[in-house]
Amino acid sequence: MNKTVNQKAWFLVLPVLILVAFSAVIPLMTVVNYSVQDTFGNNQFFWAGLDWFDDMLHSDRMWNALGRQLMFSAIILAIEVPLGIFVALNMPKKGFWSSFCLVVMSLPLLIPWNVVGTIWQIFGRVDIGLLGYTLDALGIDYNYTQNILDAWITVIVMDVWHWTSLVALLAYAGLRSIPDAYYQAAKIDQASRWAVFRYIELPKMAGVLMIAILLRFMDSFMIYTEPFVVTGGGPGNATTFLSIDLVKMALGQFDLGPAAAFSLMYFLVIMAISWVFYTVMTTLDKRDGK
Amino acid sequence: MTDTAMPNVASDAPAMTIQPSRKIKRNLRPSGGAIVMGLYLLFLMLPIYWLLNMSLKTNSEILGAFSLWPRNFTLENYATILTDPSWYMGYVNSLTYVLMNTAISLAVALPAAYAFSRYTFMGDKHLFFWLLTNRMAPPAVFALPFFQLYSSIGLFDTHIAVALAHCLFNVPLAVWILEGFMRGVPKEIDETAYIDGYSFPAFFVKIFTPLIASGIGVAAFFCFMFSWVELLLSRTLTSVNAKPIAATMTRTVGAAGVDWGVLAAAGVLTIVPGALVIYFVRNYIAKGFALGRV
């Protein structure tokens, strides 16, 4: 759609601008403020320059949290994307069962995040949870509060449970936009199932899959509530991801300077990924000729 | 007998003989897709079922005997929540700020989305991108500054504070979703309306809003959901008067003897709002999460 140039449109955008500026720019400026100052309490601040950034860049704590974070995001993407595509390919195309699948699959997406944590906290307990009890009965030593590997597996399975449906629903939306003629042509050519997937379905899904991957990466990159409820970041620091570490630092220990420097670097990474996301979105819009 | 009957049937209606045999084959051998979906849906439902199961048991049964369904069926856990103000006020508080947030988000996002979908103006692309970064902003970064900001202007522990804080990610979300729907409405409709003598507000309310009604519904639903599921900010910004249900639940987990039955019942009740409307938005879930771009 070709749009007309109209500078007065700014008036329509103004309310959003004011509101979001109030809830984003002011707090962000507070963070910037803290990141370059030091305090001994009593509201007395003095200039610290870039010391906090220097500190944070050389602290093992942040790099470890970042390492755990990247590993977590990589693992869940490696599981959720193929699984989501696989589920989408097997979903019924129309009728009652299609609606039924859509409804049931959407359910985990709409559960409050702390309840997701609570559900898995209970589900994995050896004494009262179905999963923990079953594993225990099978003779597998499973304890997500003590064993690091078990904690990781629990958090990952929980995330797969929570978010795979999103990838599947997006992939399904991509699949449904493929005209029947493509499949008929493939049938005439006697294409194998794999060839149909590789040369018809995958290219047609590429756009939505890109959105799905970026969304999942982004949301997993700032995951807080679910692992916090289940493991509290433990055992030790084993499941302390970036957000959990940041909240510990800022609200737990009130280390304002380091936490602020940490926040800003965190936010810059998010900005960079947002830019990739935005570029993908606008390219998609153009390709669709909208 | 079949020898004589078969040729007759086949010659009379060749298409019909094929149909039943195919149907029988399908019934006998369920397709691979159904098995995959069955297993996947089972994986999704089991943890939720377990929560529901626990919420219908007494605490002694939960801790005492392991059973796949409640033996001593009880609604007592739900009764506890619905009669104790410290529990049910959590729901009232959550609903209050969520509804406030949805109303504010939609009210400011509608005109903005219209501007983005119809006009180009100075800095529009930068603004659109900036909105997106706020949707993606980690709440952990904003928790402390929000706490200080709302404390300093005397709004700490009020519903409006949480509602405004959630605008951080819900307003951008609403703008993006609504813009996605609005660009699907041909511009000629606007032009025709203006020629017919409609003023902008009259056109927007009488003609445009009904055309994007489904978009507004989807945007409202997602604002509601994202505000409903968020815990970190709502917990940081409240202490007593506006304490959300999610925070009430975490407090119970920390208590010495955990009341598992009540905790499970509270969890089930938080799923209800989503489950109630899920059927109506089932075809829009993907679109909403993808910010109106699928």
From TrEMBL, chain A:
Spans through the membrane: 12-36, 70-89, 96-123, 151-175, 196-218, 259-280
GO biological process terms held by the UniProt record: transmembrane transport
Pfam families: BPD_transp_1
Membrane topology: Multi-pass membrane protein
Ranges for domain ABC transmembrane type-1: 66-277
InterPro entries, per the entry: MetI-like, MetI-like_sf, Sugar_ABC_transporter
Entry keywords, A to Z: Membrane, Transmembrane, Transmembrane helix, Transport
GO cellular component: plasma membrane
Family: Belongs to the binding-protein-dependent transport system permease family.
Name under which the protein is recorded: Carbohydrate ABC transporter membrane protein 1, CUT1 family
TrEMBL record, chain B:
A GO BP entry: transmembrane transport
Compartments in which it is found: Cell membrane
Domain ABC transmembrane type-1: 91-281
Record key words, sorted: Cell membrane, Membrane, Transmembrane, Transmembrane helix, Transport
GO CC field: plasma membrane
The protein's name in its UniProt record: Carbohydrate ABC transporter membrane protein 2, CUT1 family
Family: Belongs to the binding-protein-dependent transport system permease family.
Pfam families associated with the record: BPD_transp_1
Species the sequence originates in: Loktanella salsilacus
Regions crossing the membrane: 32-52, 95-116, 128-147, 159-182, 203-229, 260-281
Gene3D superfamilies, per database record: MetI-like
InterPro entries: BP-dep_ABC_trans_perm, MetI-like, MetI-like_sf
Membrane topology summary: Multi-pass membrane protein
